[in-house]
From TrEMBL:
Residues 19-175 form the Glycosyltransferase subfamily 4-like N-terminal domain. Keywords: Glycosyltransferase, Transferase. It comes from Streptomyces edwardsiae. InterPro entries: Glyco_trans_1, Glyco_trans_4-like_N, Glycosyltransferase_grp1. GO terms for molecular function: glycosyltransferase activity. PANTHER family: SULFOQUINOVOSYL TRANSFERASE SQD2. It comes from the Bacteria. Its EC number is 2.4.-.-. Residues 206-354 form the Glycosyl transferase family domain. This is Glycosyltransferase. Pfam families: Glyco_trans_4_4, Glycos_transf_1. The keyword Transmembrane helix does not apply.
């Protein structure tokens, strides 16, 4: 039997302006393809399509817009998706949505297809950011996670932080696999003095936030931090790369308070985004429910240190090369100033060195291991089943 496996991957909450999830899906798909497998990604979109790409086959099924999310779509036609899965006959199933697609775990069990669920966020963290009190958020998350752990052969968590909520319920089928960063595409040499001067002239501090502008990301904390720095007499400006349902409200707040904030919306040009990340002094990552933080890691690969929410997993990623802060603007401002006290060459070298621990090759190998799929290209072998 050929060891090349058809790995069917399902994802919801993907939009043209998606950031981290779209990047992770693309890079993992490319890695699976390079390892000799046949990845097939199924995502929702405005219309149906089926194409071969650099990350393997990508099938788009029509999915309705999710109100209030700024463009997210979901796969809601279970009958059609089940029929597609039957036609694709996957050797492995990888699902990146633990809520609306959890039923696919049952489908996989009936079809005797080993399946993994990738936990891209903590359930209790997201529920808290949407306003649910902590005790209720934990109870609800525990119930959801128990069903998820039972439905899938394995649950993949990208950090120890993400793993905790499954350890809490006693799940024994959890494995850890980090995400990564393109260390060639993102590097300190992208620093562009002209681009930097467009938004903040030296000695002003240039802050950047690359984030979806939605409630669970808490983008308002970045504006709070900027305002706190300005009150202290520090010259500073903020550039926001990203879009989402909170954008209009944040823009209005910046106008009313006279804050030097530039909203770029979704930046499709990855070279421009990299230059922006490399030209900033500090990157802000205020999302309290982040389980990895790809945008933050990309900034560090560009030599830019990160201030992240202490409630998130980013301390595991940024380590001593960055700083964490409580989810308040004043605390973020304090952390920014602590980073700026370090000599610029030293802080930029430390950020890059930390990012170099997270190459995509390592991530792909870890995910393939979680799928119990051959990690290196092989021609003839008998694939093992998941235990």
């Amino acid at each position: 039997m050929n060891a090349s496996l058809r790995i069917v991957r399902l994802a919801n909450f993907v939009a043209p302006a998606s950031g981290g999830l779209r990047t992770a899906l693309r890079e993992l798909g490319k890695g699976y393809l390079e390892a000799g497998h046949r990845p097939v990604l199924v995502v929702p979109g405005e219309r149906e399509s089926d194409e071969e790409t650099g990350q393997g086959r990508v099938i788009t099924l029509p999915g309705p817009l999710l109100p209030g999310t700024g463009g997210y779509r979901v796969l809601t036609d279970r009958r059609r998706l089940a029929a597609l899965l039957q036609d694709l006959a996957p050797d492995r199933l990888e699902v990146s949505d633990r809520t609306t697609l959890r039923w696919t775990g049952r489908w996989a069990r009936r079809a005797r297809v080993p399946a993994v669920m990738v936990s891209h966020e903590t359930a209790d963290g997201v529920l808290r950011t949407w306003g649910l009190p902590e005790p209720a958020a934990r109870r609800t998350a525990d119930a959801l996670n128990t069903r998820t752990a039972h439905a899938y052969t394995r649950v993949v968590c990208t950090t120890e932080y993400a793993e905790r909520e499954f350890v809490r319920i006693g799940a024994r089928n959890v494995v850890r696999a980090p995400l990564g960063v393109d260390l060639v595409e993102r590097h300190p040499a992208l620093h562009d003095p002209g681009l930097r001067a467009r938004y903040a002239r030296v000695p002003a501090t240039l802050l950047v936030m690359c984030s979806r502008l939605s409630p669970e990301k808490r983008p308002g904390t970045a504006l709070d931090a900027l305002e706190a720095l300005l009150r202290r007499g520090r010259r500073a400006a903020l550039v926001v790369a990203g879009d989402g349902p909170l954008r209009a409200r944040l823009e209005q707040r910046a106008r009313e308070r006279g804050l030097p904030v530039t909203f770029l919306g979704h930046v499709r040009d990855r070279a421009l985004l990299g230059a922006l990340q490399a030209s900033a002094d500090v990157c802000l990552a205020p999302g309290p429910a982040e389980t990895f933080g790809l945008a933050a890691l990309e900034a560090m690969a560009c030599g830019t240190p990160v201030v992240a929410s202490a409630s998130s997993a980013l301390l595991e990623v940024i380590g001593p090369a960055g700083a964490v802060a409580e989810d308040r603007g004043e605390a973020f401002a304090d952390a920014v100033e602590r980073l700026l006290e370090r000599a610029e060459p030293a802080r930029r070298e430390a950020a890059r060195a930390r990012a170099e621990r997270f190459g995509w090759d390592t991530a792909v190998a870890a995910f393939l291991t979680a799928l119990d799929a051959p990690v290196t290209p092989v021609r003839q072998a008998v694939p093992r089943g998941l235990s």
